[in-house]
């Protein structure tokens, strides 16, 4: 393998190599040699510019990642030892190791304080990377509102002596990541080349007919990326608009008719008259029931004025609700998620002109809107096209249960989620 694997003086390197197989080390060495050649360093180091270009992070986030990987030496030289040590912590470490690395990564200024400006810079870099925007591109300005939506989900509770504003503590960071799994996935896989299917970068294709003005659609690409962070890879290929109140009218029966043809999951999105946007992911079809049904794959989410995802807590199984043409007051007609009858996490009455949202133990979610009583202005529903799911099931059937489990654990370890409940 050449000089890059010669006996190290740094005991951290010896310890780090034990996290990899010999084949892994050979592949890392090949990558290093290739990037070092591009850096014109006589096979000694990788430069910042080559590092940023290869990993697709031409921003302050890329600079901060390079700084951490090079152990903050400030010499603009990433050695093979640096690469192995960083990957052993960032990809092979415990959940705490990985999240501590990511938390340091958020401090793009390197001053030891994770402030609001740091988070704003990181979010801008993420959106620039995913949506292929240049820093000078005016398109980034259109993401300013989205950046603020993600920022609004963050807490800054740590008091910093001499600072005018509070900063994000490590616990604040963990809470923020739980609300924004797409951000967590992306930040947890930055040392994976973008063309290798970097986690947290997938944006589903949004398909709708020509009979609707795109400006009327609530589901922006950035919102789809946010929701997709809580979904498996095969559900991030194509989402198709099944129902929109501007085209189909505020009709419960039309909604049920429009969504009943698909067997896959759906995404319900509501914009109310207060301007709040929120909804729920329904893992099961919308079918007439006299009680709660569904499974714990469903979740609630907020999109505006802040973005958050609320997954089932396991407190109860009151996940999905769909009641039609019942005459009993104990079975309200309409669709909803979580909570209990007449005190739902989210509910639309069968008239589609009024609903409710309450604090909900099913999903650990707050009231999703400004008030508990909501008045919908726009309602839309997207169906998740399941083509890829069948292929994944066939592929999975070829392996043993143990092999599939190992693959899943490997993928989760890459983003530090194998030992978490997120």
Task: Set out the fold topology.
Elements: H1 11-17, H2 22-38, H3 48-55, H4 60-69, H5 80-90, H6 95-106, H7 116-130, H8 144-151, H9 170-179, H10 181-187, E1 205-207, H11 221-228, E2 238-244, H12 245-248, H13 252-259, E3 266-272, E4 277-282, E5 299-304, E6 308-310, E7 320-323, E8 334-340, E9 343-349, E10 355-356, E11 373-374, E12 376-384, H14 387-397, H15 401-414
Parallel strand pairs: 1-2
Antiparallel strand pairs: 2-12, 3-4, 3-12, 4-5, 5-6, 7-8, 8-9, 9-10, 10-11
Description:
This is TLDc domain-containing protein. Residues 217-385 form the TLDc domain. The chain is of the alpha+beta class and 422 residues long. It has 15 helices and 12 strands. The protein is elongated, with a radius of gyration of 24 Å. The two termini are 39 Å apart. The model is unreliable at 389-422 (pLDDT under 50).
């Amino acid at each position: 393998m050449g000089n890059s694997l010669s006996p190290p003086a740094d005991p951290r390197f010896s310890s780090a190599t034990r996290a990899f197989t010999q084949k892994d080390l050979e592949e890392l060495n090949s990558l290093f040699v290739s990037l070092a050649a591009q850096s014109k360093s006589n096979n000694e180091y990788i430069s910042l510019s080559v590092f940023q270009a290869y990993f697709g992070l031409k921003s302050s986030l890329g600079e901060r990642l390079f700084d951490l990987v090079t152990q903050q030496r400030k010499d603009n030289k990433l050695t093979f030892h640096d690469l192995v040590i960083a990957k052993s912590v960032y990809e092979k470490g415990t959940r705490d190791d990985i999240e501590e690395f990511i938390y340091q990564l958020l401090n793009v200024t390197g001053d030891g304080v994770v402030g609001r400006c740091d988070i704003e810079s990181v979010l801008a870099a993420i959106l620039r990377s995913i949506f292929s925007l240049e820093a000078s591109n005016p398109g980034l300005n259109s993401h300013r509102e989205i950046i603020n939506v993600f920022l609004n989900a963050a807490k800054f509770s740590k008091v910093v002596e001499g600072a005018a504003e509070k900063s994000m503590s490590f616990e604040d960071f963990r809470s923020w990541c739980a609300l924004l799994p797409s951000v967590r996935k992306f930040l947890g896989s930055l040392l994976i080349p973008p063309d290798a299917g970097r986690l947290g970068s997938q944006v589903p294709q949004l398909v709708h007919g020509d009979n609707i003005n795109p400006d009327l659609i609530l589901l922006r690409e950035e919102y789809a990326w946010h929701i997709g962070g809580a979904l498996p890879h095969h559900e991030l290929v194509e989402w198709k608009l099944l129902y929109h109140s501007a085209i189909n009218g505020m009709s419960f029966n039309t909604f049920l008719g429009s969504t009943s043809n698909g067997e896959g999951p759906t995404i319900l999105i509501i914009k109310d008259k207060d301007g709040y946007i929120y909804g729920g992911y329904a893992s099961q079809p919308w079918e007439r029931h006299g009680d709660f049904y569904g499974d714990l794959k469903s979740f609630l989410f907020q999109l505006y004025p802040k973005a958050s995802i609320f997954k089932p807590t396991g407190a109860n199984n009151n996940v999905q609700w769909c009641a039609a043409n019942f005459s009993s007051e104990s079975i309200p007609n309409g669709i909803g998620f979580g909570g209990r009858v007449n005190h739902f996490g989210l509910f639309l009455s069968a008239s589609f002109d009024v609903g409710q949202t309450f604090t909900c133990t099913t999903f650990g979610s707050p009231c999703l809107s400004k008030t508990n009583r909501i008045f919908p202005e726009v309602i839309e529903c997207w169906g998740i096209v399941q083509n890829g799911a069948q292929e994944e099931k066939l592929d999975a059937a070829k392996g043993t249960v143990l092999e599939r489990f190992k693959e899943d654990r490997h993928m989760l370890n890459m983003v530090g989620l194998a030992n978490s409940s997120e």
